[in-house]
Design a protein that fits this description.
It is a single chain. This protein is an all-beta fold. It folds into five domains: about 1-50 and about 190-255, Immunoglobulin-like, CATH 2.60.40; about 70-160, no CATH class; about 270-380, Immunoglobulins (Immunoglobulin-like); about 390-490, Immunoglobulin-like (Sandwich), CATH 2.60.40; about 500-605, Sandwich (Immunoglobulin-like). It contains three helices and 43 strands. The strands form eleven sheets. A six-stranded antiparallel sheet has the order 2-1-12-11-8-9, with no helix packed on it. The longest helix is centred in the N-terminal third of the chain and has 5 residues, at about 25-30. It is globular, with a radius of gyration of 28 Å. This is Carboxypeptidase regulatory-like domain-containing protein.
Length: about 600
């Protein structure tokens, strides 16, 4: 058996050996066995490999648990540093209605430390706790109230920059050295273009063994003693950054294949242009923000030049409104379009146009969907700022809640609980244009929304299924103008009951994070459930993934026992496969979900 337990590239694979051997030479040296470590074929489904081998965005880093077990004490070093950053009235807030604090949390000593909201917008900025125990985002390691490690740039709750792979709170991948929020170098790993001439070295107790990949990206080490080794491969990308991988390998049997050792290089943007003015770049994401103001009827020519290190065919598209992509004509890697400014464009301060591109290797190394993107922001000279909309206050019965900071989203959480049959007027006062649209809604019986196209609504508990927290939504906007405002009113039910929640998933008795499944393998699924009421609970099991058209239903087991058995099939060996476990108790009260108390997805890598 050969086991890869990744350190720097954090990829966990389990390969089955296919032979063994011995030699007199090995006995003379006092070693029990010797054999051959050979890369002769790619054993893993390329799509399944892609989910854990993204060389730039690492979008699935957290879901895969690549960072490892990081103890909170590793980075909990700032004491009371943050206590003056946030008003004490906002400490230990419950923002999701599960009756548990989740924003501006304090530690055991009463100091503010986790999920800290520095700008008072209802979203944590630094030291974020995630659903994966021991994995954290936007970590401040030097106590300056700024994120240093595992930085989430696009607010998708996943690390994009200064990623800590091994859990020591020191950045290992996509590292930003100069502080411009862009990676200055990055590491890639398996799953892409075969590279020849790459130096490969195996280092262990019995010395170093060297090889070089051939024209097919394959390499071979012969007569290697049993033991633990570090496998290293190094190459240089076309942008001058180091492409490398380091993998810990335990050799128990020999004449085993470890799969084709493949290193990936994506096409990159070498130039971005606006009306012939070019900006040199070497990146998979480029931006252009010309200072010139464009008027209605003006034309502007936009272009990018893309270089593929392996000369693969390239395709590019443009999205004038971030929808309905259109093919971009290209010539030797240059993709260009001419756009004319419209009256609709002038209703916004800037017109955004996005290009994206990819080659034909199917890897989509930028974000799992494309190989790279370019963004153009064109300032509108004819733009006239619309009269703003502002939610001034919200009335819940006789209680008035002033929107003091006036963010575009206003969350109101009354402390007074409501009865299951409560009737309560909810009203919103808005300052802004007289001609605007308004919409109130909450989920009623049978999952049909109770609505009101006005600034007020009568909340009627008899029309809504009992919920631990009733979430009433309100929005107002002016047609054709991006000035919308919204509010939510969370009404807590007057009850001592609490929902059942899914904590984790055991698969064959082990945590799901530790599983690499194989097609044909039978799995016993058993969620770990928190059931504070002690009620009887029931579960539903589903499988999800990008299976493609014609795939079977995702249902494994409908509501019933909280244990299920499932055998992995060929269709499960895709790059995004997970089990979804839903749970509910029998108290007749629901969470904000449709028909369950809680639901969680658990990613599992499946190989063929």
């Amino acid at each position: 058996m050969i086991r890869h337990s990744l350190s720097m590239i954090a990829l966990s694979l389990l390969l089955t050996g296919c032979g063994g051997g011995s030699s007199d030479e090995g006995q003379d040296s006092g070693l029990a066995m010797q054999g051959t470590l050979q890369a002769d074929k790619h054993l893993f489904n390329p799509a399944a490999m892609a989910r854990i081998s993204r060389p730039h965005n690492f979008a699935d880093l957290l879901a895969q648990g690549e960072q490892g077990e990081a103890d909170l004490a590793t980075w909990h070093v700032c004491g009371d540093r943050y206590n003056d950053e946030v008003p004490r009235a906002r400490w230990n807030l419950d923002t999701d209605g599960d009756l548990k604090p989740d924003l501006n949390l304090t530690d055991e000593e009463g100091n503010l430390y986790y999920n800290i909201d520095l700008d008072n917008d209802g979203w944590a900025n630094i030291n974020l706790l995630t659903h994966n125990e021991g994995i954290h985002l936007n970590v401040d390691t030097n106590c300056d109230a700024k994120a240093d490690v595992n930085i989430d740039l696009n607010f998708d709750y996943k690390a994009d920059l200064n990623i800590d792979v091994d859990g020591d709170m020191v950045a290992d991948r996509l590292i930003d050295i100069d502080g411009d929020n862009l990676p200055d170098f990055s590491f890639t790993d398996t799953g892409g273009v075969l590279l020849s001439g790459v130096p490969v070295k195996l280092t262990g107790k019995y010395g170093e063994f060297e090889a070089v990949t051939d024209e097919n990206g394959r390499f071979e080490f012969e007569r290697i003693p049993t033991g633990e080794y570090r496998l290293e491969a190094d190459a240089l990308a076309i942008d001058g950054s180091k492409i490398w991988t380091r993998t810990l390998i335990t050799l128990d049997e020999f004449n085993d294949s470890i799969g084709a050792f493949r290193m990936h290089q994506d096409p990159i943007i070498t130039q971005i242009e606006v009306d012939g003015v070019a900006q040199e770049t070497l990146t998979q994401q480029a931006n252009a923000w010309p200072e010139h103001g464009y008027s209605i009827g003006d034309s502007v020519t936009l272009a990018i030049v893309v270089e593929d290190p392996n000369q693969r065919p390239l395709q590019a598209y443009n999205e004038p409104d971030f929808q309905s992509p259109e093919v971009l004509p290209g010539n030797n890697g240059r993709f260009e379009m001419t756009y004319q400014i419209t009256e609709a464009d002038a209703q916004s301060e800037a017109k955004g146009i996005q290009f994206f591109y990819f080659n034909d290797d199917g890897f989509m190394g930028f974000d799992g969907q494309v190989d790279g993107r370019a963004y153009f922001s064109l300032q509108m000279a004819d733009y006239v700022e619309a009269e703003p909309l502002t939610i001034k206050r919200v009335m819940v019965g006789d209680e008035v809640y002033e929107n003091v900071d006036q963010p575009p989203y206003f969350l109101v959480q009354p402390e007074t609980p409501v009865a299951v049959d409560a009737q309560l007027w909810l009203r919103v006062e808005v300052e802004g244009p007289a001609e605007r649209q308004s919409y109130f809604s909450y989920m009623g019986l049978g999952h049909d929304n109770v609505t009101s196209e006005s600034d007020e609504i009568l909340f009627d508990g008899t029309l809504a299924a009992p919920r631990y927290v009733y979430k009433v939504q309100y929005s107002t906007w002016t047609d054709g103008i991006p000035n919308g405002e919204s509010a939510e009113i969370w009404l807590k039910l007057d009850t001592d009951k609490q929902p059942a929640t899914v904590q984790s998933l055991l698969i064959n008795g082990a945590d799901s994070k530790d599983l690499m499944g194989r097609v044909g393998q039978t799995l016993v699924l058993e969620p770990v459930i928190n059931n504070p009421n002690g009620d009887e609970v029931s579960c539903k099991f589903e499988r999800h993934g990008n299976f493609g058209p014609g795939a079977d239903s995702g249902l494994i087991s409908d509501w019933g026992a909280c244990q299920a058995t499932y055998t992995l099939v060929q269709a499960d060996a895709v790059d995004m496969f997970n089990f979804v476990i839903s749970v509910r108790n029998d108290d007749g009260i629901l969470s904000e979900h449709w028909d369950y108390d809680d639901s969680r997805g658990f990613d599992v890598s499946v190989t063929q």
